Amino acid sequence: VPANLTPQYHAAEQRFREARSTEEKIEALEEMLAVMPKHKGTDKLKADLRRRMAKLQEEEGRAGKGRRGVDPYHIKREGAGQVALYGLPNAGKSSLLSALTHAVSPVADYPFTTHQPVVGMMPFEDVQIQLVDLPPLMDEGSRDWLPRVLRRADALALVLDATEDAATQASLLEEGLREMGLSLRGRGEPPEETGRDRVKAFLICLTKVDLAPDLKGPLEDLAPWPAPAVLVSALDTPSLEDFRRASFASLELIRVYTKAPHEKPVKRNPLILPRGATVEDAARGIHKDFAQNLKFARIWGEGFFEGQMVGRDQVLHDGAVVEFHA
Ligand SMILES: Nc1nc2c(ncn2[C@@H]2O[C@H](COP(=O)(O)OP(=O)(O)OP(=O)(O)O)[C@@H](O)[C@H]2O)c(=O)[nH]1
Ligand SMILES: [Mg+2]
Q1: d(CA 260, ligand 2 centre) in Å
Q2: Cα–Cα distance measured from residue 183 to residue 120, given in angstroms and rounded to the nearest whole number
Q3: What is the pairing mode between strands 118-124 and 127-133?
């Protein structure tokens, strides 16, 4: 029986491989076990993961209640995904975090204001995205831990000050990331590793547009970049909605809504799945037995007639409503 591991499993496995601390390794393993399809084909894998888990837990115990294994800069992922804000000093990162979330990150009109990560939850439609405000490029104090935080984020938001040269800022950031072993990929490009580099999804955010005399120039300069630039101002609420949308897009996720037979298709409590997820993946997101016993599903949404019958391999799109039949 083939294991048929899901995209979520592979993502968790990647986090396991990159984990530095025992705590992180345990966390990634827990997720691998949780999202792993459970059937005959994965019995051996499950036993193997359990064994590794036991060993790690023992290690953590030896390290004195896990004190040594804990990374104080480990930011526990919450919500649909984690987007890290990265930019030059004074670009406007903390102002964005404060405008988009309930978190407060000190803002000042001088550079190098932020020294520690500040985390906030940003609502977008019916999902929550975790935003992480960070010290800027060239900040000496964060040299040791900043690369780890950036590596673990699901996507990076490159925050550029619209009153300064956009292309230069973007290149400096890309260079800085390269020095940390990070490179950027455009949307839809596969997350393959290029040598030792970790490849990150990203978006470009041109902020302080309320102060910028000209936006045509910067936009032309940024056109060759493989991610669309969003234009925002921390002072302009409608523009912030564009940032929320672009952040969600950068995570390459879909929202799938489920309903019981005879219920109206209502969009609430979405299942969050990686792009490319199928009916079977959605069923597994609810309960493993659901996926195993699934006979067919009915689907509502773009490209389908209402309640169209589909099989377990049907790829789902953002906003689809699904009804499972066992
Ligand atoms: N007019 C205007 N001013 C902004 C905007 N965003 C940030 N600022 C100002 O720009 C300055 C820097 O903002 P911060 O949010 O502290 O910038 P930062 O990128 O967090 O800076 P570091 O933490 O030093 O890297 C502050 O004086 C902000 O008030 C904006 O959209 N419009
Ligand atoms: Mg700041």
Answers
A1: 46
A2: 25
A3: antiparallel
Please, what sign has the CA dihedral across residues 157, 163, 166, 172? negative
- Predicted confidence at residue 198, as pLDDT, reads 74
Give the model's pLDDT for residue 66. Answer: 46
Contact by Cβ (8 Å): 313, 287:
no
pTM strictly above 0.85: no
How far is ligand 1, taken at its centre, from the CA of residue 92, in Å?
A: 3
Question: Length of the chain in residues, anyone?
Answer: 326
Instruction: Strand 271-274: give its sheet, edge to edge.
Output: 271-274, 253-258, 320-325, 296-300, 308-310
123 contacts 244 by C-beta, under 8 angstroms: yes
Contacts of residue 227, defined as CB under 8 A and 6 or more positions apart, other chains included, come to 184, 186, 187, 202, 203, 204, 250
Residue 245, φ and ψ in degrees, nearest 5: -65, -45
Q: Does residue 316's CB lie within 6 angstroms of at least one atom of ligand 1?
A: no
Question: Which ligand number lies closest to the CA of residue 210?
Answer: 1
